[in-house]
Description:
80% helix
Amino acid sequence: xxxxxxxxxxxxxGYGLNEITQWGKEKRLNNTLRNSxxxxxxxxxxxxxxxxxxxxxxxxxxxxxxxxxxxCTHFPxxxxxxxxxVAPNLLSNAEKDCLHLLYERLRIADQT
Length: 112
């Protein structure tokens, strides 16, 4: 009887440790995703500044009746897509809506 009790106690302890570990992993992943999203958004701001410079150069070239290649690197969206796949509850609905509008406009800008 005592062995059965110890078995049950060990199962509960193991289950509790597993839950704590999973909670810690999820918390760490969420923090990593949030920090990565902030870095991705900072990169986008820098790329927008760069893209403005390319457009100004293209306009200047058009004024001189030249055609300039305006192809640029695409805006990053890997972290945004990963958050939607892995941790959709990480962001509030308002944050998701704002990011969706931002990334959709960036996607359109990449196609032009």
